[in-house]
Amino acid sequence: MCQQILLFQSFVFFRGVKDEGPSMPTLQLELDEFIICQKPLELLGEESKLCEIPITLESTELPTEDTKRFQVQYLLFRRFTPDQSPFGFCEETKLHSVQLLPIYQTGSSVTDHEETENKRELLSLFCFFSLPHVGYLYSVGNLVELISTYQYSEKSEQAVLTPQFLHVITSENLQCFTVRCSAAAARDEDPYIDTTVKACPPVALDVCTLRMQLFIGPRAICHFKNHIILLTKADTEDITERRKPTRRMLSRKADSIKSRTNSESEPGWNLYIINTVSTIQLYREMVDYSRIYENVKTESCIHLLSEAHLLIRAAIMDPHFLKSDEKEELLKAFRESCAFLGDCYSRYDYHLALPYYRMSGLSVTEVLKRLVSEGDEIQTYERGFIFYLTHSLNEDLNEELNKESANKVLQIFCLADPVQLPHILCSPCMRNVCPLTAVEYLQKVEKIMPSVVVTLTKAFMALKMGDMMMYEHEMGSYKEVTLVCGFTGQPKLLRQHKEGIVVPTEFAVHLKEMQPGLLVAATVALHENSKIELEEADTFFKILCGNSENTIPQLLVDFWEALLVVCSQEEIFQELLLRVTSQYVWRISKKQLPETKPLKTTEDLINSCNHFGLIFPWVTSIMLMGSPSDEDYHEDISKLQSLLCSQSVNIAPALPVLEPLTEAGNVGLTIHVLCSTRLGRYEEALDQLLRRCPAAAVLYAQHELKGDNQAMWWNKLLPELCERTRLTGNDCPVLVSSLKETLSVVAMELELRDFLSLLPEDGTAAFFLPHLLHCSQRRLLT
């Protein structure tokens, strides 16, 4: 797409014509002429189409597929007209410089400039144009906006824009101004730059004049890399004399003769190539100059340091940055400028100290050394510094303050923000803090604002001191439910991050041994409040219990079971169901007992969680005939059966998990029949029961064969029992008993004719007579 920027300077003049008619007023007749000017106007983006100036694209080459796609996009329209300003003449409002400045993707993202120069991606586009007394810099990217206005101290002749500076020539000077292109481009490159992680000085900073150099008669200027090329014209005649009226009275002929005869009076043209000051040198000068205002006028100090920072940022965004000899020095200066800005903003009620210190790469200890004076004298700490310190210490940094620095931090927060003390003490950075000193500060906070978090933090410090009496006193101050809420308010009492891994604290280790139920309940609350992820909890409990990566500790199973009670998210509880099912199956198949006593029994889970169902009577009947060895794993077996007796588990995904129990005797039979039933395979379930445990077949049928499945009583169960009884005779009383129970049910449900049709031809009539009589009597009664 071809984008054409429209910049117009519009002057519309209407000259009045004398009207000789008698009706024209005398005053109007005395007017020789008058001028009517249109008002100044600015149209940005899509609105610039309203300028109603048609643009037609004409191609100077043969049409191609590319040229067919060319189109005009209106970006900017601005009209200037004379006003009542001191330089309000038409000649003084003519445009003399127009320039487009592209900025490409940050140089640090380019791996090989020679190969990628033609593939550079445009990041930002800027448009600059200048009048004799004022210049305008626009960003014309996705959003067209005016970002800077330059007011010149005297009439300018020409201007040229670079990514770092604006160079302007006047009748006697070469002036240099700061620009905001790098600030705007940085935001185009990273829309999230103004956060607590990183920052950039604003685009709307007031522009500064950096340098002013005297030259005789500058006429033209251009820019190439780090050079300014200046063309000047030096006249030998006196400028003041040339402006006298007597000089204007001389004839042109005399002037021309004089100019031809006197060669010394001819103007002299000079070409200058000026090397611009290196970025690093100018940066150092601006930093040194900013120190004048460091303690007097902080806003001016911030302004100068922001200008210096933008100079470095513009140099880093240059596509040639990676091959620059100053690369390392520029990066060092960038970090240094961030540190200086962090120092300034820390003395303000402002949040920018945090992102600038982060970009500087300084540790918390180094920042403390920069801002906190030595000794015990009372110092005032501004909210910018407290904001930085609070956020930094509340993060999981791999940095530990020494005892002296940690105690100093306690003193700072006690003076500036005592409410944050319990949270600060839980920071990994504060591991070396003196616990006795911490308790003293916490007791002061407790008098002002008591809370369960303060109490738990005091208990934490008591553990570090080994004062179990104090620990038990603090933990006994609240009920367990309240303590759980306290751990939710400050999760770092239990878990911290170290190199990206969740690790338990000393508090969690102690609770594992003394109050595992409280630990599990607190971890469940953390998960439900999005303070710990499911995978993080797995790692937490494995590290806490000292288990290997592939071994599941009982405390983790307790956590899964407790989480099933409260979890309401479908995908999470299905994952939990598979996990606990897998663990139950593994223990049963491997004959592995849990290393600690489970916190909840099957009955507890059935009463508290609808994902665990009442165990069916036919399942209990099968288990009563099981081997005594199953009693050792009764809890895991009953929990697994309870899960499958509910409607929560998706059976199809669980089948591979249940596969190891195929040959597990009566336990395996119950699992197979439960799965077949959940999948709607009732005939398969009956075959399994009749083959392996016929005594439970009728109980199964009574529980499962209802409604649409009731016909299986006479279509499946009755014929199978008759056949099996015939083959075994009276040697299997269980089959005979089951057959009688089945006949009783069938006689109650079928008509006499249908019932007779089901009886086997080789059966003993005396065996079936009671059921026939019962069936006929039921028919007569109805």
UniProtKB/TrEMBL annotation:
Residues 18-261 form the BLOC-2 complex member HPS3 N-terminal domain. Residues 242-263 are annotated as: Disordered. One of its GO terms (cellular component) is BLOC-2 complex. InterPro entries: HPS3, HPS3_C, HPS3_N. Residues 252-263 have a biased composition (Basic and acidic residues). Residues 281-779 form the BLOC-2 complex member HPS3 C-terminal domain. PANTHER family: BLOC-2 COMPLEX MEMBER HPS3, HERMANSKY-PUDLAK SYNDROME 3 PROTEIN. This is HPS3 biogenesis of lysosomal organelles complex 2 subunit 1.
